[in-house]
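Task: encode each sequence below as structure tokens.

Item 1
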Amino acid sequence: MRETYMQLAGFAQTWGLVYFVGAFLCVCAYAYWPSKKKSFNEAAQIPLKED
């Protein structure tokens, strides 16, 4: 029973790490994608706009 738990825990830790690193890289790629710069700059200026 404990051996099965250890195997499942190792599997979850390894592939969980791979999943979260992949998700992090996707988020970074999205944030730094050149075509997104204009929309991010516009969104950053919203609090500074006067009505």
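Item 2
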Amino acid sequence: MKRYLFLAGVLVLLGVGAFFAAPYLALRGLAQAVERQDPQALERYVDFPRVREALKADLNAALVKEMGKTQDPFAGLGLLFAMGMVNTLADALLTPEGLAALGTGMEPGEAPPEEARKWRLRWEGLGRVFVHHPEDPSTGLVMERQGLRWRVVRLRLPPP
């Protein structure tokens, strides 16, 4: 009987260890995919359709909010042009080069892919973590548990 209790205790400890190690392993794989600039490997760690739609919604909401602050009649025309560029901006950020530049203050393509090695992980709940660069802890990636794996589901950008 003691052997079964010991075995059950070991299994519980292994399960808890695996639970808390999983996002760190996913972060390591994500950083390696960004570093290698491998879109196929990145697909395993990023839910691109969900991230793209959330990013477009966030950028459009920020533009509308800024529009509400101005009284310029030409600002509406500027908003139309800016909303057209949101898709282009979202597509530029959702590349290995764009992800490597997150939180560094550099433009996509300027930041060396090795910057992804510096990413840090902060827990926001049992099924959600925030991945950020140490230089900018407000900008980064939100990862959620999807079954047994972790995937990026949102880009968190600093307020405008």
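Check on item 2: The first strand starts at residue 120 and ends at 125. The two ends are 62 Å apart (CA to CA).
End of task.
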